[in-house]
Write a structure and sequence with these properties.
The chain has about 475 residues and is mostly beta strands. The protein has one domain: Neuraminidase. The chain contains three helices and 29 strands. Bound molecules: calcium ion (2 copies). The site of one calcium ion has 6 residues, from loops.
């Protein structure tokens, strides 16, 4: 069954996009541009915005969240040594409404609460999560027949990356909230019994990975380790610094880490800009290091900002999502699903996007020099966490399919993304790209009420989804 993944958006009578009637990737499932676009405005935006952005000194991105309502947190050292309190209670029943979002793309490029920003050091002291507008609207979420979705936890404000620990333990990172949680299902009934904060006061701790009883936490500039964490959730150990030799630029500085089948820790180092070429090869790469932090090396180049990857359960080869550049208009460029079967491949950034779109600023190398995506994804959808589905609960056609979260667009007139997608493969080719869960956008108002970030397959074959906007975990199940 092929779903129409495109959003239904109200036409404003503007021109329908005409520039992308051909597939953006060769011999693969087709990316069809959304039906509503503002072409003239896009061109003006390109002309107006291309000059900004590359090679400029890094400036802090604008902060647009509401002022913090939460008490000041202890400094990192004190926080690390102190016993972790239980996670904060769920948001009150009537929290303040989320701020209204800009309607036009020009203003959406600035002062937009959906714009991704790194919050580091003292600049985020007392920062708090974006207030939720209302309780999760589960009834608005759409899934294929036989699938159901439920709330797994509401005690995880700003929930970002997911990592499985000891049986029954799911670790959950945050970005703005500076914490890492452990969500524990002690009696294994697939309902959490306790949520612990196992680390706090951290600088953008978006990346987490678990191996052999140790939880690794990647901040912008350094990698931490919590040894023997599963048995010390209520009294977590002080973090050990594995390495502090990671780049410290904030732009795209939030990390996503996982251990590969080779035992190395993989860590993307995003481009420290929207579009730029840096001399240091570590930028715009997926790098890897030994678990002790040594031997940091580039594994894949030309990757603008990957925030999700996994290894194929049979071939053990790396697949990853990559976020396309901004400010090329509503429908360009696509985000990407890429495949790196070996080290040393180059995936095009900053020269080429989506396999065929030459960057208007970086024209000195043709697209044919680079690895094209396996599948082009919706533009600005912000494809993030992904897993191969290895469980047995879902129907057979989901076995070894790629499930990933599209966090949702901010650099686009009408919202796109805000859903969890499935890409099925035939060998190394994508043969479908369709929603598993959608409905986090209100189609009447074009307002989003939730933003999926990462996915994780639990041992019963159900699927967890994190939502940093709503601060919840969802669980997807299937029954015939
Ligand atoms: Ca339980
Ligand atoms: Ca690429």
């Amino acid at each position: 069954m092929i779903h129409d993944w495109r959003p239904r958006v109200a036409s404003r009578g503007r021109s329908i996009h005409r520039g992308l009637s051909r597939p953006l990737s060769r011999g693969k499932a087709r990316f069809t541009p959304p039906r509503v676009a503002s072409r003239g405005r896009s061109i003006l935006l390109i002309a107006g915005l291309l000059a900004a952005g590359c090679g400029q000194p890094q400036k802090p991105e604008p902060r647009s969240e509401a002022p913090a309502a939460r008490p000041a947190e202890p400094p990192p050292a004190a926080a690390a040594a102190a016993p972790a309190p239980p996670a904060p209670a769920p948001a009150p029943a009537t929290p303040p409404a989320a701020p209204a979002l800009p309607r036009d793309l020009g203003s959406a490029t600035r002062e937009n609460p959906l714009r991704p920003t790194a919050h580091t050091g003292t600049s985020i002291r007392n920062d708090s999560r974006v207030p939720a507008a209302a309780a999760p609207r589960l009834a608005a979420l759409k899934l294929p027949p036989g699938f159901s979705i439920e709330i797994y936890s509401t005690d995880v404000p700003n929930a970002r990356s997911l990592a499985l620990g000891a049986p029954g333990v799911v670790y959950v990172s945050t970005r703005r909230d500076k914490r890492v949680y452990a969500v524990v299902d002690r009696n294994r009934d697939h309902k959490p019994d306790r949520v612990y904060t196992v680390a706090q006061g951290l600088d953008t701790p978006n990346g987490i990975a678990y191996r052999n009883g140790t939880l690794y936490i990647a901040q912008v500039g350094r990698l931490l380790r919590l040894d023997g964490i599963d048995g010390r959730l209520a009294n977590p150990p002080k973090p050990v610094v594995v390495t502090d030799a990671l780049p410290k630029l904030e732009h795209h500085g939030w990390r996503y880490i996982r251990f590969g089948p080779d035992g190395w820790l993989y860590i993307p180092i995003g481009a420290p800009c929207n579009i730029c070429k840096r001399d240091e090869p570590i930028f715009a790469s997926i790098a890897r290091m030994k678990p002790d932090g040594s031997a940091l090396e580039v594994f894949a180049s030309g990757v603008r900002n990957s925030v999700g990857f996994d290894w194929h359960p049979v071939t053990h080869e790396l697949w990853f999502t990559d976020n396309g550049r901004d400010d090329l208009g509503n429908d360009l460029p696509p985000d990407e699903l890429d495949h790196a079967p070996r080290a040393g491949m180059h995936f095009g950034y900053p020269y080429c996007h989506g396999g065929v779109i030459a960057d208007p600023e970086f024209t000195d190398r043709p697209c044919t020099d680079f690895e094209p995506p396996v599948q082009n994804l919706g533009p600005h959808t912000a494809a993030l966490g992904m897993r191969f589905y290895t469980g047995k609960m879902f129907p057979p056609e989901y076995r070894n399919a790629i499930i990933f979260a599209e966090h949702g667009s901010w650099n686009r007139e009408h919202k796109l993304g805000y859903r969890v997608m499935v890409v099925r493969l035939d060998g190394d080719k994508a043969v479908s790209y369709e929603p598993l869960v959608s409905g986090w956008i209100d189609e009447q108002t074009d307002e989003a009420w939730g933003r999926p970030v990462d996915v994780e397959v639990l041992d019963d074959g159900s699927l967890l989804i994190s939502d940093d906007w709503k601060g919840v975990l969802y669980r997807v199940t299937y029954r015939k």
